[in-house]
Design goal:
The chain is built from 2 helices and 3 strands; from the N terminus they run βββαα. By secondary structure, it is α+β, with helices and mostly antiparallel strands. The protein has a 3-stranded antiparallel sheet, covered by helices on one side. A hairpin with a 5-residue loop joins β1 and β2. The model has no long low-confidence stretch (mean pLDDT 79).
Length: 83
């Protein structure tokens, strides 16, 4: 696998930054998630133009399964609370 470009090394895995120069001379930056569809073909999902919001959306897409809820010793052992 080839290394990431130096400009994109600050991004998490499977997150892409696209920079476009507008007619006015300004740069338009957008972020995408490089994922796959059901058939295994490459699909880029837009994450927005704000880098912080894009990282939040990236985290939501990267999460593959719901995390296990924390259990206490009482729920594991079947202990009841005394009142």
């Amino acid at each position: 696998m080839r290394p990431k470009k130096p400009a994109n090394r600050d991004l998490p895995p499977r997150m892409i930054r696209r920079v476009r120069r507008l007619k006015s001379g300004q740069e338009w930056v957008s972020y995408y998630y490089a994922g796959c569809d059901e058939e295994g073909k490459r699909k880029e999902i837009p994450l927005g133009t704000d880098p912080d919001e894009a990282r939040v959306k990236w985290v939501q897409l990267e999460r593959t399964k719901v995390p296990v809820t924390a259990k206490t010793v009482g729920t594991c052992c079947g202990a009841t609370t005394a009142t």
